[in-house]
């Protein structure tokens, strides 16, 4: 995944964008130049990624340049 992020960041024309990657078993999110938020509920096993927080849930902002 880190190699994929490096290659995508090397594309100068790309500008600001967020990415979702999956290897079939896990979902990865990467923030580059735009807002990105994550929500997880350990009790239910529900997780979500969104460009803006929704509803009254406790969304956590993903820091710029971070792969989660």
Question: Could you give a short description of this structure?
Answer:
By secondary structure, this protein is mainly beta.
- Strands in their spatial order, largest beta sheet: 4-3-5
Question: Counting H and I runs of at least 4 residues, what is the number of helices?
Answer: 1
Total number of beta strands: 5
Q: What composes the largest sheet?
A: 3 strands, antiparallel
Broad shape: flat
Radius of gyration: 13 Å
Q: Are there runs of 5+ residues with pLDDT below 50, and where?
A: none
Distance between the termini: 10 Å
**Averaging pLDDT over every residue, what do you get?**
86
SSE run: HEEEEE
Report the sheet-strand fraction: 35-45%
Helix percentage: 10-25%
Structure description:
The model has no long low-confidence stretch (mean pLDDT 86). By secondary structure, the protein is mostly beta strands. The strands form two sheets. A three-stranded antiparallel beta sheet has the order 4-3-5, with no helix packed on it. It has a two-stranded antiparallel ribbon with strand order 1-2. It has one helix and five strands, in the order αβββββ.
